[in-house]
Amino acid sequence: xxxxxxxxxxxxxxxxxxxxxxxxxxxxxxxxxxxxxxxxxxxxxxxxxxxxxxxxxxxxxxxxxxxxxxxxxxxxxxxxxxxxxxxxxxxxxxxxxxxxxxxxxxxxxxxxxxxxxxxxxxxxxxxxxxxxxxxxxxxxxxxxxxxxxxxxxxxxxxxxxxxxxxxxxxxxxxxxxxxxxxxxxxxxxxxxxxxxxxxxxxxxxxxxxxxxxxxxxxxxxxxxxxxxxxxxxxxxxxxxxxxxxxxxxxxxxxxxxxxxxxxxxxxxxxxxxxxxxxxxxxxxxxxxxxxxxxxxxxxxxxxxxxxxxxxxxxxxxxxxxxxxxxxxxxxxxxxxxxxxxxxxxxxxxxxxxxxxxxxxxxxxxxxxxxxx
Length: 372
Fold this sequence. Notes:
- The chain is built from 16 helices and six strands.
- It has helices at residues 7-14, 29-49, 54-78, 87-98, 105-116, 133-137, 140-145, 150-159, 161-176, 182-206, 208-233, 245-248, 256-261, 268-273, 282-292, 302-311, and strands at 251-253, 299-301, 315-317, 321-324, 329-332, 346-347.
- The strands form two sheets. A four-stranded antiparallel beta sheet has the order 3-4-5-6. It has a two-stranded parallel ribbon with strand order 1-2.
- Strand 3 and strand 4 (321-324) form a beta hairpin.
- The longest helix is centred in the middle third of the chain and has 26 residues, at 208-233.
């Protein structure tokens, strides 16, 4: 592996070439959020109050799913402080944007800003990192999952994208809850329960059939869109001892109009270099990264990235490779032998599942200061 550098090292090299306005909040992003909010309210009212043909309900439901996802992307940006800086306003707007995805702002900032961004692709400390073979041996559940043939696992892994953000958010609530000070735990629970109470209340008012089109199907669609990005952010990259965004992150490319609608969420390496910068300026950051470190930067079309995920396993082997435990097939990662156009593997001898130790899996939490 090439020498690793921290995100601060890269940021210091690029910052002198960026305009001062790039480091200021961009409040105009809220206009896009207002459009999505009005479309969302209008769509839900149409499904709830009008006796529409199921085809129209389905089309509105798809539109709502796209809106839910886009509001989530905006919420992500808001809670990084790149739209407004006042904490109370930031959290209020972030809560509104994340309302359809039922994720509270204080939990998100603890999970995503304070932990994931600081410890990206650290197996022990990043709550979003995928496991190594060593961790696999310590988890009975993971050992059972990885006995399932690879093609079947790949199919269900992609199907699960439609629920994975919601499920992982609930898991993060349980995982981080005790880390918050007792006086803040009620706020965390309130921020989690209020969105769900809203949507369950809507179910009781309009009935199951209309609720399916007004919320449940859009939630599945939004999960799939959001997780299509998130699943490509780091899962083809190495686990790393140093938080180096050019080693541990991937930017994907999508049509420009999609980038506009999704608030440039595709620029993920750029985001990890400058998380407190509005994504409006990430295309400019990309230009400088590719000028300074073209051989280290990872990007590929979204479709190719998802196809590569489908064709490779998700268990790390010695940090810089991925392994299929049943067969002992070892694949490279980006920057370490993975060619998305010609995916190959080598064989290693693996220990039979029956002899793997049966210790419960543990996950070390980072001892950092932040959202409490």
